[in-house]
Amino acid sequence: MFFVCVAACPTGVAHTYMAAESLSIIGESLGHEVKVETQGSMGAENVITEEDMKRADGIIIASEVAINDKGRFVGLPILECSVSDPIKHGEAVFEALCEAINNG
């Protein structure tokens, strides 16, 4: 599956990038393709494109703050969690979204 993700924390530094790295590494280790947009102190990086959205099977939003342009994700399965969840429980995050997708 192809997942797009957004990681964001209040200061937009450490936890944002730790969550992004965890989502990428764990998702790929589970056999998924993953693209992670970070929204932090340097603005949005690795921005999810319209083409990414057309291919996406689901969305993971790992955030402690409101994210920019959340409306672009309407119509796709979304899992929202704490920014620390992918760091501490990465496999469970992907398993929960896959279960939601498979169960409709």
Automatic annotation (TrEMBL):
It catalyses: D-fructose(out) + N(pros)-phospho-L-histidyl-[protein] = D-fructose 1-phosphate(in) + L-histidyl-[protein]. GO terms for cellular component: plasma membrane. Its EC number is 2.7.1.202. SUPFAM superfamilies: PTS system IIB component-like (SSF52794). GO terms for biological process: phosphoenolpyruvate-dependent sugar phosphotransferase system. Keywords: Kinase, Phosphoprotein, Phosphotransferase system, Sugar transport, Transferase, Transport. InterPro entries: Bacterial_PTS_Sugar_Transport, PTS_EIIB-like_sf, PTS_EIIB_2, PTS_EIIB_2/3, PTS_IIB_fruc. The keyword Transport applies. The keyword Ribonucleoprotein does not apply. CDD domains: PTS_IIB_fructose. One of its GO terms (molecular function) is protein-N(PI)-phosphohistidine-fructose phosphotransferase system transporter activity. This is protein-N(pi)-phosphohistidine--D-fructose phosphotransferase.
